Amino acid sequence: MTAPSNSPEQAPALPSRSEPGWSLLVLGVIYPAAVLVIELSTRMCADTFFDPMPTLGHALFVAFVPTANLLVWLRCRHHIRTGLPLLQVLNGAAIGIAAYFSLLFLPIMPLAAIAIIWAGMGLLPMAPFGSLIAAILFRRHLRNHAKHEGAPTRYRLAWGFAVCAAALLIVEIAVVVTHMGMDMAASNSPTTVERGVRLLRLFGKEGLMLRACYTSTRRSSDFVGAMLGIKDPVRPEQARDIYYRVTGRPFTAEPMPSIRGGSSVFGPRVRWDRDVGGEQVAGKVDRLALDGSRIDGSVDCDAALGYLEWTMVFTNGSPGRQEARALVGLPPGGVVSRATLWVNGREQEAAFAERARVRQAYQKVVLTRRDPLLITTAGPDAVLVQCFPVPPNGGSMKIRVGITVPLVLLNQGTAALRLPHFKERNFASHKTHAVWIESKGDLAAHDGSGLKTEQTSAGIRALRGEISESRLLSPTHVLTVKRSAGVRFAWTRDKVGKPEAIIIQRVREQQTVPSAKAVLVIDGSESMRKHAAAIAKAVDSIPPTVDLGVIHASDKVEELRQIGSGSSPADVANRISRAGFAGGCDNVPALRLAVDRTADLDAVPVVWIHGPQPARIGSPELLVQYRERRPVASRILSVEVEPGRNRLLEDHQLTGMCEAVPRLGSLQADLERLFEGLFKERRELSVVRERMEPDRAPDLSQGKETSSHLARLWADSRVRTLLHSGAPSDRELAVKIASDYALVTPVSGAVCLETKDQFRAEGLTPVPETPVPTVPTIPEPETWALIIVCVLILLAMARRRLTWQSS
Q: Residues 63, 68, 73, 74: is their CA dihedral positive or negative?
């Protein structure tokens, strides 16, 4: 039987012009593949114009075009008889993808043409157009082969376009929705913002939102996103607030995105930190790390105070200089009283002065790329530490932060100390923290902390060991010390103020007056969801006679119980356990409502239970106005559930209105202890410090003499009292006291510059150059023993030398 004339086996050979040449292989395969590799390794286009491949799906999408072209070239070049229908579909998809990216790059084509003439760099944006031309020419070769083999050609191009459209929809829909949602969330209209946040919570891609926190959306990756970015780009500062509103987490809690403008999948490129010298921690910095960390401390148990020094060593593995920034949570009531920077291996102490003055000096030195260290307050019991520059290519920078700490009195015989910790940082911290705390009294650490107790010389006890960062962050990780019951007061000589005086500290026990009313404000952010049960159990412990108001600070303020409504705490606890938590919520409207509810009531406390508040969404001006205008402003007790930045508490105008509640255990236990102090009659311990002339001081032999840190604690409390009045003259006096006693307060800061000339140029004087106060240090009991041993060795060597010479 004779085979049909159109059989492939008997078909005449195709003319040579039907075979794609090597030039087409270069244009449609090698050229786009090379551009793909170059862009992934350098992110040149992403850093200069926009990111064409923000996700792995986009990279695979682009890689599909040279792959499909290569398969077609092999099929047509070597006359492989199989897979023609599939190749026709793939070729149609390649044409659609290449056309899409050609349209995306069309606006920068004039620049690309100029770049080709100038340096040849414009060949990269030309790659989609080359791929499109090659794919169309490959289509003609496939059509010739299909006609030669008698295969159908209809609808295959349409099928290819359909595949392209489906893949494009899958890859781009989340990107487009995310950019549209962010554009809405950055609007000035509250209604539009609310719709945008809701859209992002449902369909937004967190990775793209996180990337926008570092790079403007002007460098969008999709066509619609690029058009939105050109119209009204979302700035990184706006994106950071949006990220918190959507996820409920600060963007600094996440690792820096690996695929973004200025970085590559093969490793990060050198990128200047846009937040250098600013007043916030901001984003993570590539290859900047905390390489060494140690906390040394000394505790005077009977005087209920201590002093800690946190020494940190930063390393920088990037080719450029970087600034290390950290928001450090201090022990309750702690104040920074020392700052040291190592310059060329030598210790340089800081100068303490008015807040704006030290920041100006820091920023001026940063511009000259010299070594400064700056420490300023960032809300209650928190400071912002920033140092620059950490040298590149493995260079290191060493600093020390000294903290004067009042112990938290649990009872007459026991006090507690919580160690400092990072609330937020822009560097990696994979190291453990070495801890060594000494005291003449008994020290104890939380079980499982890893700290061990040992006896050193001269009756000194020590807690030593290593603590992971997660344990350092935990509010349950506290140290306890035993106090002598017979100590009536503690005292120290104050040589700073004029005339010299005595600082006396007494521990008083007084009967509390229980409050019959209170308002609870509960943060409705996602981070609070896992704590709802603990909060509900603590609220259930409140006596039923208490008139309690509860406000849920969610996206829309919800009053779960109003003062005077008659609902029982048990009913309120049930409502709290069933309340919704989502995203990051603005707590300012709820606090305003709470203050309004207590406007006609005397001294009703507002208990604010919250997570981090890294975004200032609402204005606190109404709260500031209440503080300034009301004779008795509402007292806001801030209970921080999880560590993190709180921009509302950083507002210095609210100083004196917001009071931080010490966290010493589990959330439920801390809340129950707070509620017991507010609503039940009991005897409460308080510390009173006063400065008096020597002739008015009590018999000092009856008290316990302690270190000059007691004078620093008095000065810190005096500064805060002056600031609470709000008078300009009192503020000037507060600045003077803080500077004289070398303290970091809401009106003062510490700056450490590299040279004495820099200090003189700014009119600043580092602490060691003044007669008083002396720089606080950690007492080392072993030092004298070491000196004695060295002296004995030197005497023995001298005696041996004399004996040898006489012989």
A: positive
